[in-house]
Specification:
17 helices; single chain; mainly alpha
Length: about 475
């Protein structure tokens, strides 16, 4: 029903102000998300070194869950924003309800993984009974109760698509604060609570996610006037709409799932590498190397999460401008996003270069800190050299998705993480020098930025340039 929607702020607000108003709340909330992910690992690391290694080993499955939640959200967000730009009220409501259906099916898949697949996965990752046990406990809980995380993604994307990013910030902050408060209480058994260890960390996580998902639903019902969920529920499942969401979302899911496979591949390489010169047994050296890699991923989230938040603010603007055929606003949004991402990642690289030992100290204890430091300091310094280069790639891949071509994003991501990082890391591991393995990330980023430049020129000529002035 064209013309039934009021003019949205994405049509008239100055671009820089619009981008910051859309992105800053998400960036702040994602920083809080990164904080509670790190806090989670810090408490677990203080509980036991084996738990820290287990957390690193379960990371690929957690990444897969996030990939599905975020990827479906990317597809839903882009279609919602495009409908908003075209003032298509019926399309908005139909997209919302079919997005909810996709999320419900996704939960059923992770429920089955939690019940039937976790034991086999952890058994394949480590020969240590203690590490397998702790990882299995944690992963079962987060998979079986993943409906909270998926609900949070679903309803936050609806808020973001209509420009209400401040409310998605509130929901994410609620989940993060609940997690941070409950973590030490449930892990260490404070204030009369039972000492639950890894189970406590997992329970704190899912409680925070469920609370955030519920609040995001309430905000959509009470505040989000563009999307009427009560009206949307009258629509039946629509193959065409589901297909549109998945056409954009599946490449994003695959792209992020490739990251999960990459982490699994690097963990496997580190877990079988003949690491020399550490003063530890081979198994202990491998466990430390896996822990260092897991710690890196936790720490780099502080740097990359704000950029991903910037992306989440940028994507609906670009999709809206595409629907409204506003070329100048679209290109200005992209240019500003490149500039902000580069500044953030340069700052992150400087921090990693200057104080890597202090960053690692948060995750160490008296028994393993010196070994973490020995392996971790070179790792953080080498990998962070790739941060500024990554800024162009991250923004470009999201622009491709917002323009409706997630396939290109998927191809570039696949090339970077599977064709380059894992094989190069394996070849470097044959030297038996752990420090050389980390250069695989820098090499992969150089390849990735080259592909992104080629792809961006293609997308500009095909989609952006024809929009006119």
């Amino acid at each position: 029903m064209e013309g039934s929607l009021k003019e949205n702020k994405m049509a008239k607000m100055p671009v820089n102000k619009l981008l910051l108003s859309m992105a800053l709340p998400i960036m702040i909330s994602m920083l809080v998300q990164a904080l509670y992910n790190v806090v989670d690992s810090v408490f677990v690391a203080k509980y036991s070194a084996s738990c820290m290694t287990a957390i690193s080993l379960v990371f690929p499955i957690q990444t897969l869950m996030i990939a599905v939640g975020s990827g479906v959200g990317v597809g839903m967000n882009a279609i919602l924003s495009r409908c908003l730009g075209a003032r298509d009220k019926e399309g908005l409501d139909k997209t919302a309800v079919n997005g909810i259906i996709i999320y419900a099916i996704s939960y059923l898949i992770f429920l089955l993984i939690g019940i039937f697949g976790v034991d086999a996965f952890m058994a394949s990752q480590s020969n240590s009974p203690e590490i397998v046990k702790e990882g299995t406990i944690y992963l079962k809980i987060v998979c079986i109760f993943s409906f909270g995380m998926l609900a949070q993604f679903c309803f936050e994307k609806m808020l973001q698509a209509t420009g209400r990013t401040i409310f998605s910030m509130y929901t994410q902050m609620l989940g993060a604060i609940i997690n941070i408060i409950l973590d030490p209480i449930l892990i260490f058994g404070l204030f009369g609570a039972p000492r639950m260890g890894m189970a406590g960390a997992a329970i704190a996580t899912v409680i925070g996610q469920i609370a955030a998902g519920m609040l995001a639903l309430i905000f959509n019902i009470k505040i989000n006037k563009e999307i009427d969920l009560k009206e949307a529920l009258k629509f039946r499942p629509c193959k065409e709409t589901i297909g549109k969401i998945l056409y954009i979302g599946v490449p994003s899911i695959i792209m992020q799932s490739i990251g999960s496979i990459m982490v699994l591949g690097i963990n496997t390489i580190l877990g079988s590498m003949n690491i020399v010169g550490t003063g530890l047994s081979l198994e202990e050296s491998r466990n430390i190397a896996i822990a260092v890699f897991g710690i890196y991923f936790k720490l780099q989230s502080f740097v990359f999460m704000p950029v991903f938040g910037l992306n989440n603010g940028m994507v609906p603007i670009v999709a809206f401008c595409l629907g409204a055929k506003e070329k100048s606003r679209l290109t200005k949004t992209i240019k500003l996003s490149f500039m902000y991402a580069f500044a953030i990642l340069c700052l992150g690289a400087v921090v990693f270069q200057l104080i890597p030992d202090k960053l690692l100290y948060m995750f160490g204890n008296e028994s393993n800190f010196e070994h973490l430091k020995l392996m971790g300091v070179p790792a953080l310094r080498i990998i962070s050299l790739s941060f500024p280069v990554a800024s162009f790639c991250i923004i470009s891949l999201s622009v491709f998705q917002a323009l409706g071509n997630g396939i290109i994003s998927m191809i570039v991501s696949f090339s970077r993480q599977l064709i380059v990082i894992v094989p190069v890391a394996y070849l470097l591991s044959l030297t038996e020098k752990i420090g050389l393995v980390w250069y695989a990330f820098l090499i992969a980023e150089v390849v990735s930025v080259t592909l992104c430049v080629i792809a961006f020129r293609y997308m500009y000529k095909k989609i952006i340039k024809p929009l006119g002035n």
